[in-house]
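Morning!

As promised:
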Amino acid sequence: MNFWPQVRGGGDGVTRRRFGRSTLGLLALTAVWPVSGLAGEAPVRIALTAAAVRDKLPFYDRWAAYLTKRLGRSVQFVQRRSYHDTLEMLRAGELDFAWVCAYSFLQAEDAGIADFVAAPVFHGEPYYRSLIIVSRDSPAETLADLQSKSFAFADPDSLSGYVVPRAMLRDSGHDPDHFFRLSFFTWDHGQAIEAVAEKVADGAAVDSYVWEYMAAMRPEIADRTKIIDRSGQFGFPPMVARRGIEPALRRKFTAALFAMTDDPEGRNLLQALMLDRFAAVPLSHYDSVREVLQRSLQAQLHVQSQNMPR
Amino acid sequence: MKLVHPSAWSLSTKLAVIVCLVVVGVATVIGVGVAKKDRDALRDALAGQARLLARWVATEAGEPMLRNDIWPIYRLVRQTAAEGDANRKTILTIMVLDTDGLVVAHLQPERNPIGLPLAVHDDAERRSLASAMTVTGPTAFEDPARRFIEGVAPISVAEKRLGVARVRLSTEQLAEATREATMIVVSRTLPLAAVGSLVGIILSLGAVRTLKQLAESMARMGRGEHVPLMLKGGDEIARLGEAFNRMAEEVAAKQRLERELAQSEKAAALGRIAAGVAHEVNNPLAGILNCISTIRDHPEEPRLIERYLPLIERGLLRIRAIVRDLLIEQRAENASEASEPARLDEIREQILASIANRNIVLDWNNDVPDSVQVNRPRIQQVVLNLVENAIHAMPTGGRLRFAAVIADERFLRMAVEDDGIGIAPENLPRIFDPFFSSKPEGTGLGLWITARLLQAMGGTIDVQSEAGSGTRFSIRVPYERRGDGPAQQ
């Protein structure tokens, strides 16, 4: 038996991924307990995904405490390994808010699961990119140089960490399913950077925000990598709310995020996240994401139709 | 220091060296044994750890492998290595391979890219990979070159075999333990050997002191002195010393006795000679006095004088012969030791003259060159005496043989042989006694003087004789070479 999967779109791949994720969901579930239990009401649960930086978890205790004060309700950050798990939990009402990838957000919105709350502003703009990184001493200069190499993706539902690099390959005339010798998921952008730094993967596609964050906060890892390619800009992974959540809670939460720049503690927290602020953006802001998404879906459908037995 | 063969070492050195070698030898044997046992125990412990680590990695890697989830497997490998390092176990490598031998995770990912067959650089690696791929349970083995111990465990989930986990622990620890054990042995052995050698030296010096005294005393005893040993203790060497002291006393007593005996023998011999002289001289004297008395009593008989005068003359001649021989003996005995060339041929003429009107043939074989130094007067006297005897033994003529050769580095050998009447067997033991003669006119002093001369020179004389067929005298006498020059004719 060959252990190595051919990473490809389509039914077979999806089935395999679903099986993996449902098992992983249980393993990777690491809950951050509420800082203070306020009697009577259930805590407000916010999911963190690969879109957020997760190298210093105690930070989220501080942020939870801050939001608890602002909302008057206990707030709890929960870690979710994959976007898929996060969306499923939003659908099931297990979560109230989530910080998800733009791609997941559109999937959730289309599916009627979640609504936009706020977009983080990074380096003055609510945008980010997909970066193609390689080891610092790698001879590769473009994504095309990574043919037949090993490659790390963040999450199959990640825009910058999966969808965009595959689109980039397709745009340059390559078949993303057979381009790499081997690819794997790290379920986290930071881990993808580490996989390249450690030379387990010859290259990786990562969120530009996470890479910048790592370059500033964990230079011993990020400095061992270099950027050889970058995509166009996309709307920054937003904070979303479960559709059907109490409007008052949603308003309060949105206001609390927007108001973080108004007090020193909030500014301090934003600084730790290397974000300028949280802001409202029009949904058209994510049009470029939708465009990539549609192109990818078409490409997948095309592949599927070609593979269909006649 | 000059190198000397061990057999020539002094006893005190030998004993010290032997004690030192024995102590070092015993310590080395024990040390090597301890170090080896230590290493084996450590090796087994290390093998157990390698097996355990491999099993741990195999267990933890199973589920992620089933899900094709590579990254957690690498993290597991890395974390296991980090923990191993924290526990001061040098983990050389950890790897997870799938059933086709492709790398799933490797502690050195750059040199062992994932998804490719494991790079093997030599036959030993190839063999260990082949055996690792077929293990059925956690196992451990030592690398043939002893660089590492490898633990291998199969990875399987729900009875499905997915691959294999391999962990290699450095044997540096073992080498270090062996080095430490060796250092301990050496550091313990050196002082032990030093103390052992010191004790050996002290003991042997004690023993050797008595032996040295013994050797010195023996040497002095050879020179005739007697110094009793001062003895301490009651060990074997002390007993040897006691025995030596007793023996030395006995030897001294014996020597005293011998000296006394020689003294009394000399006195007795002197007495015998004196008695012989008295007797030999007395007989003719009595005859002479008798003649004179008879002549005086009969002055009217002039014929008596005519008759007795020859008798008186003969008696006096005999007395003169005896006195002459005794003087010769006296001269010979007192002759200086001065060496001069042998020149044996000088006496040949003398001999030829004395056999001139007898029916005797002389065979003269002198092979002694003149460069040989001897006491010439004594030697010539000896030869002449023996030749005279031989001539007398052949009243009707015969063959007289003389031979002289250099026997060896120190002695000349000479022989005087005749084919005359020989010596009666009963007389043989007495021929060298003074005043023993089988000839009516002999003084009985010739052979005695010959023997005395040879004795004085440090030589010897032997006789072989058979009544009726002849006699042979063989003598050995010491000589010297003149200078260092070659022998000359």
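The mean pLDDT of chain A is 83.

Hope this helps with the figure draft.
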